[in-house]
Amino acid sequence: MSDQAGVKLVVLGDSITKGDNVEPGERFTSLVEKELSEKLGKRLTIINSGVNADITALAIHRLRRDVIDHKPNYAVIMFGVNDAGYYRPETPETPGDTPRVSAEDFRSYLNSMADKIAAGGAQVFFATPVPMSKHYWLADLPQYVENGLNYIVDEYARIVRDVAEERSAVLVDVHKAFSNRPQTGDYIPDGIHPDPRGHRLIADVYVKTLAKALG
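The structure assignment produced for this chain is given below.
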């Protein structure tokens, strides 16, 4: 590895980013840090700013502490599955009848977070959410049975793509990688959180995309 100056990147996200359900070395952030450092020939430090059950409406209030104060060169915003969900952490046995964050608000929060992070000096990237699998414990909700398990997550992934395109930002299309491979449902054994195989796939998409963006 050369002596070139290192690069710092923050991944801002939810429990999928935090990765508590896998070993630290199996998290996609750890894999990407190691493999991109080798590929780029310089030190890449990734700061994992994932928070369990987080949504854009909450994450926007922790940008200073969890992103900007780290003074990163780059930041990836990766949300969607919780924003699109009917699950309510405050009443876990009683799902809501609307997504936790509306599609309109989701788009607005993505743009607002990107503006604030960019103002702090980092280049902003976006990542689409991981789709849910059939193992999700609320998969039998009437809305999902009628419209398909990922009908809202798919919509929110499209919003992320649209925002990235409108801002001419780099897009890490994790959702597409999972959706194009039906067998990846087995990589998400609880319906939401990828296992080591799922984190490996996420890391592959990050490495492929960011190697071009940072190279």
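Interim note for the steering committee: The longest helix spans residues 196-214. The radius of gyration is 17 Å.
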